Amino acid sequence: MRFHAVANLVPDLLWSADKNGQWTWCNQRWTEYTGLTIEQSRGSGWLNAVHIEDREATRLAFETMPSRESLRHEHRLRGADGVSSWFLIRAEPVQSAAPEAGQWFGAATNIDDYKRSQADLAASEERLRLVLDSAREFAIFSMDAGRHITSWHQGAQNLLGYSEAEIIGKPADIIFTEEDRAAGTPKAEAEQALAEGRATGEGWRRRKDGTRFWGRGAMMAMHDGAGAAIGLVKILRDETAAQNAREALEKSRQELMAALQTAERARAEAEAAGQAKDRFLAVLSHELRTPLTPVLMGVRIMQLNRDLPPSAGEALEMIARNIQIEARFIDDLLDVSRLRHGKLEIAKEPVDIHEVIRSAIEVSQSEIDAKEQVIEVRLEAANHQCVGDSMRLQQVFWNLVKNASKFTGETGRIRVSTHDAPGMIVVEISDCGIGIRPESLERIFDAFAQEADSRKPGGLGLGLAIARAIAQAHGGDITAASAGFNQGATFAVALPTGGQSGQTGQVR
Questions:
Q1: Third-level CATH fold of 345-506
Q2: How far is CA 374 from CA 368, 412, 429, in A?
Q3: 84-93 and 104-110: which strand pairing?
Q4: What is the pTM of this model?
Q5: What topology does CATH give the domain 2-110?
Q6: What is the pLDDT of residue 386?
Q7: Which of 39, 102, 254, 303 could form a disulfide with 19, with the two C-beta atoms 3.0–4.6 Å apart?
């Protein structure tokens, strides 16, 4: 999240892609400029913002990313206002030993001004061939060997501000800045042109009113019939826009490098924090779980005493129940730690999914009865045999049934059903409870995430994350659907049928 916050501050359009060139993320500047959402831009959806004439070349460039060490590409992007501008695309593979290695990080920098200036430059160079009358935007003037101005054309007056009457006979050094005159730049340029026939140069030049512009041009020696140098001719043009574009590109490059360094630091810090959290959860869970077992055993032994008054028996039952709840929380923490380290073991044995569902409902029945809820069970799948870990799968269905009861009011209805799908069995657990907001349908599967509108106390927000991990470890998945708040929710568990048994695997 810190990386995303930093990336949203950068003026460039930032994005990341997998090793196949499919986008996985983009920053807020991208969505603001193109009008495409992050979801619309993922995969190859971002190509919809590329100008239709540039789209095929851009697609090919991204498809060949795996064979490149870096990516440099130019294309036009259509803005949300319908206007297209040129962008320079630069991308580098992320150098990391982390599991997400193989991704690319890139930026799109607006170079429309630079491209326009390039076009202007090309047009200007073409017009140079039309000599003085068709070159009014160029400063063209001549000098004697001592660099005193001998002729001054309209283009020079337009650019530099001096009229012909006030400039003839004055030294041409007047158009150079004080810094360049002090450094001897005008003399060095003239000496090179006289010695070699031609000299080129660029830099800040000075107009009559004192304003500066970035001038670029050439100085050439003029010779008489005998080949002797008799003077110099200077052709100068204003390239301030192009220089500004180059400076903007360099500034953007520096900002991008700084952003990349910041992102790398943030990623390293996040990884370190995640590892520290995993170690903490593992140690904390173990230290909390260890003393609970003898306490629960002590309670059970006390419950065997038939001389205890009813109130004491109820208190002991309450203690035992809360110890078991606490143990469940700790087991969830341990499961999260195991999942992160790929150590959650999954047995592979023949399993009857219908039997597993019945067992899960039986475990939850007391909670359902306490709220006078009605549970409808319709197990209609013809193929309900699969290979997996019955205890872990019971944990999945118990969690979903428990949640359905928890988030459904008194006397509410819960429905559990199964049906066949190609190569799969689908188990659906539906309720008529508080529902889930659309923007939270995926977030609820994140570890420690809880729906803000649930208003239900208790729980660590781990159950759904663990349940989905277990389902995916069996080759399936869990999805959630809801029409919105107070509209109920449906969780669908899809598991593959068939497979081989007799093995034990680990979630990775």
A1: Heat Shock Protein 90 (3.30.565)
A2: 7, 6, 13
A3: antiparallel
A4: 0.41
A5: Beta-Lactamase (3.30.450)
A6: 93
A7: 102
State both tokens at 61. Answer: 């460039």
Task: Write out pLDDT tens, residues 167-184.
Answer: 999 999 999 999 999 999
Radius of gyration of the chain (CA): 37
Quote the tokens at residue 218.
């050439």
Q: List C-alpha distances in Å: 413 to 43, 366, 369, 404, 498.
A: 40, 15, 11, 9, 32
Residue 292: name the closest of 320, 253, 267, 264 by CA: 320
In whole angstroms, give the CA distance from residue 110 to residue 449: 38
Element (H, E) at 479: strand 477-481
pLDDT at 464: 87
Please spell the DSSP secondary structure of 304-324, one letter per residue: T-TTS-HHHHHHHHHHHHHHH
| Six token digits for residue 418 | 């199964």
**pLDDT tens-digit series, residues 319-371:** 766 666 566 656 666 666 666 666 667 778 999 999 999 988 987 888 898 89
Type of residue found at 319: I
Highest mean pLDDT: which range of 89-103, 452-466, 471-485:
471-485
| CATH 3.30.450.20 matches 118-238 | yes
Q: Cβ(232)–Cβ(143) under 8 Å?
A: yes
pLDDT value of residue 100: 47
**Would you call 226 exposed, middle or buried from its count of C-beta atoms within 10 A (0-12, 13-18, 19+)?**
exposed
Other Cβ atoms less than 10 A from the Cβ of 338: the count is 19
Angle at 357 between CA 463 and CA 457, to 5 degrees: 30
Q: Is the CB of residue 471 less than 8 Å from the CB of residue 396?
A: yes
CB 136 within 8 A of CB 155: yes
The helix (H) or strand (E) run that includes residue 508 is none
Cα separation, 67 vs 80, whole angstroms: 33
Buried b (16+ CB within 10 A) or exposed e, 317-330: eebbeebeeebbbb
Dist. CA 172–CA 178, nearest whole Å:
13
- Ranges of each domain in the chain: 2-110, 118-238, 273-340, 345-506
CA distances to 22, 144, 181, 223, 438 from 187, in Å: 56, 13, 8, 19, 73
Residue 128 predicted with pLDDT over 60: no
Fold match, 118-238 / 345-506: no
Which pLDDT tens digit goes with each residue over 184-199? 999 999 989 888 888 9
Q: In the structure encoding, which two tokens stand for residue 29, read together?
A: 């500047």
% of the chain with per-residue pLDDT over 90:
37
